[in-house]
Amino acid sequence: MGTNHDEGAFFFTPESPIASEEAMTAMIEKVIGKPAAKQVSGLYSPSLEGQSQLMTDFVFWKPSIELAEAQADHASVWMYRFDWHIPSHPQLNKAAHALEIPFVFQNLFYFTPFEVQIDPSMLALSQQAWVSFAKTGNPNNTEKLAWPTYHLNDRQTLIFDNPMKVVEDPYREKRKIFTIH
Q1: In this predicted structure, what is the pLDDT of residue 78?
Q2: CA separation, residue 45 to residues 2, 6, 22, 24, 80 (Å)
């Protein structure tokens, strides 16, 4: 299970209304309570970028972490974060919601209008991991991909990017504020 680095970017346009700092703080307080909200509210500026990051964290990332924590004692869990993007590209400059789908199904035609070349090895590893997980319940299907299981003591997370890498407990400090573990 996992998320994309910039999930929320998919849901906002330059014309989207910008919530006030007070409104954003109130939203955060409803989810994690006032004491924790005071610790993180400065992370989310009253801007489209701030709103996008708030959505990424509270609608996608936090629930994904909580589900992984709940499941880890009962079954194997593999956590990922999809980070691939092209910083200078006008449409693909963020790892927005659902950007990983073309990699999962090798739908390269999606990228044709953007005139983007995808690293074939990253594409192959991505699809192989998803297919292996669907077939066997384990994404590790090749010597080229070592995707460790997620445990509360190390929270190893595979970062889908070029190159792929495993990171231990991404956003550790924020997670500790957001969750009870």
Answers
A1: 98
A2: 25, 15, 11, 9, 26
